[in-house]
What we know:
Blueprint lengths: L4 H9 L3 H19 L7 H18 L5 H6 L1
Amino acid sequence: MSKTWKELIQQAKQNNPEAMLEMIYRFEPKIKKTLYQTNVQNREDLKQELIVKFIEVVHMFELEGQRERMRA
């Protein structure tokens, strides 16, 4: 059974590399589609930069309920 985005984010934030790879895999079609708008020579570098940014955003992402736990 496929994991939900919430489950994957929770696991990725706990440094689970399989969860992070699953999310990147799910986003890969969108990344590729976006890269078709760029110069061919720059696509691989931009893809790597997008993936790094994606990882950073996942680690900063606050799930529902996290704010309440952080305030307590």
